[in-house]
Amino acid sequence: MSQTFKLFRLQQIDSELDRGRARLKEIEIQLANDLQIRNSQKRLGSSQKDRDQAAKVLRKSEQSVQGQRLKIERSEATLYSGKVVNPKELQDLQLEAETLKKYLSILEEQQLEAMFEFDDKELNFQEVSASHSDIIAQIAHQNEALVDEKNILLQDMTRQESERQAAASSITPQEMRIYENLRQQKNGVAVAGVIEKTCAACGSTLSAAIFSSAQMPNKITRCAACGRILYVG
User: Fold this and answer.
1) What is the mean pLDDT of residues 94-104?
2) So what's the pLDDT on residue 80?
3) Burial level of 145, CB count in 10 A (0-12/13-18/19+)?
4) 182 contact partners, CB below 8 Å, separation of at least 6
5) Is 176 a residue whose pLDDT tops 90?
6) Whole-structure pTM over 0.90, yes or no?
7) What Cα–Cα distance (Å) separates residue 220 from each residue in 4, 38, 99, 205?
8) Residue 220: what pLDDT?
9) CA-closest candidate to residue 14, choices 140, 165, 151
10) What are the b/e assignments for 114-131, b being 16+ CB within 10 Å?
11) How many CA atoms lie less than 13 Å away from 46 in the CB half-sphere?
12) β-pairing verdict for 191-195 and 229-231
């Protein structure tokens, strides 16, 4: 097995591990990000506050109507009790009863408006509440899938780490230093395949001398353009 193949195989494993780590990071961010739920909770809280306020207004309106009706009953009871015989007092009581009834009509109209407002806020609250429940269920399902994916990734990466150790054990310390330095410098890609006399990493066409050198199995040849180790499969 050639040294360049060993390095190329190590690069393949490291690239797989890099992709796995990147995806794990994405999953952790998604699992920790509850922005959608927080926004939904805010909408739910705002809708509930509006509904409760409308309910308070409605209760107050109902109490006003009930109180006004009691006033009318007391006024009419006095008017028709027969205890008041003075014409002026009777006229005043009759006028008072009429005034109370007129105001009752205003209060009943306000009560009806309050009922419509409450019904509207209640309907909105029910819709927002249902939407919030859907979001909670959706996030829970999504998180379940993400956790499953995370567990599979961790299992794969454990296997890949074992493969990496085996692959690295047959590479000399000097070559490993070169490889690791290139990995740091070249965005994780230290070894590039050669495709039709071209560096697969940077796309540069290899000279005849470099291509010939890269074909030697136990010689480390690097791309003249990007400096990566070349592997001719």
Assistant:
1) 92
2) 81
3) exposed
4) 190, 191, 227, 228, 229
5) yes
6) no
7) 7, 55, 106, 18
8) 93
9) 165
10) beebbeebeebbeebbee
11) 8
12) parallel
Give the residue carrying structure tokens 């739920």: 37
| The three-state (H, E, C) secondary structure of 76-107, written as one string | HHHHCCCCCCCHHHHHHHHHHHHHHHHHHHHH
| Tokens matching residue 157 | 């990466």
Per-residue pLDDT tens digits for 39-54: 999 999 999 999 999 9
Residue 81 has pLDDT above 90, yes or no: no
Q: Domains of the chain (ranges plus CATH)?
A: 34-169 (1.10.287.620), 173-231 (no CATH)
Crossing angle (nearest 10°) for helices 87-169 and 35-79: 170
CB 200 within 8 A of CB 192: yes
Residue type, 188: G
pLDDT at residue 11 greater than cutoff 80: yes
